Amino acid sequence: MKSQFMFNNLKSYDDFQLTISELTIGNPSVNLISQTVPLMNGNYDFSSLYGGQTYSNREVKMVLFLNDLVDYSRERLNILYDKVINWLFQSEISTLKIDYVEHMFRGRVTAISEKKKFVDSEAIEVTFDCYPFRIAQHYEGHDIWDEFNFELDYAQQTSFTITSPTDIILYNPSAISITPTVICTNDMTIQMNDTTYSFVAGTTKDYRFKLAKGENHVTITGQGDIEFKFRKEVL
After folding, report:
1. Considering Cα of 99, then 102, then 107, then 110, what sign does the dihedral take?
2. Are 172 and 211 in contact (CB under 8 A)?
3. Helix (H, G, I), strand (E, B) or coil at 190
4. Which helix (H) or strand (E) covers residue 19, if one does?
5. 100-117: string of b/e by CB count within 10 Å (b at 16+)?
């Protein structure tokens, strides 16, 4: 099986006969926010002032080689390179899925090696600038048995039928707070941490309503069905 990646709905090997020969996934760096005061030793660290640590984007680099079973002429190499350039450079921010790497990245291409290098060596170097967190492919609460990780995933219910005020627990296994999409069949209210949020029937994403890392105790009031859609995000 050839190792490949998918970006903007196209695959490097299936569509362009390019396989991944080298892969480097950088770690995001911590965004440090500090301030010194005259005559004090050290400084004040405000990096988590608003409830959580923030991170810079991460860099993903890979070297792609042309399938060695195919004999390409210089003209065909030029054409293939142009196709790859158009695919990668004309794509805006998109999902990046890499074989054998758990979860997805989200980013865009920032650099591609020159055509001459590809014609001479049949290798292309590609650099992506990506969101700092890897994003789970499936929403929390999925029941796809073959893709469930018993060491890292969390089995939980994310859809409920509400007939009276109901207390539930939503578990956020991410490294950061997550804003879920809330889908309900009727207007409902949600109380969490002494704050009440109102959701109208339909699909809503209220960026004031965030699930903290770990357990979130929620009280739902209303009549009907409600679903919370969110994906795990990890470093």
Report:
1. negative
2. yes
3. strand
4. strand 18-25
5. ebebbbbbbbeebbeeee
Per-position pLDDT tens, the chain of length 235: 579 999 999 999 999 999 999 999 999 988 777 677 776 777 666 656 556 778 899 999 999 999 876 778 899 999 999 999 999 998 889 999 999 999 999 999 999 999 999 999 999 999 999 999 999 999 998 866 556 565 666 789 999 999 999 999 999 999 999 999 999 999 999 999 999 999 999 999 999 999 999 999 999 999 999 999 999 999 9
- Radius of gyration in angstroms for the set of CA atoms belonging to the chain, rounded to a whole number: 23
Q: Token pair for residue 169? A: 């627990």
Q: Report the distance separating Cα 229 and Cα 137, nearest Å.
A: 12
Report the helix count and the strand count for the chain, using DSSP H and E: 3, 19
Q: Read out DSSP for 81-144?
A: HHHHHHHHHS--SEEEEETTSSSBEEEEEEEE--HHHHHHHSEEEEEEEE-SSEE-SS-TT---
In 3D, which of 233, 191, 192 has the Cα closest to residue 213? 233
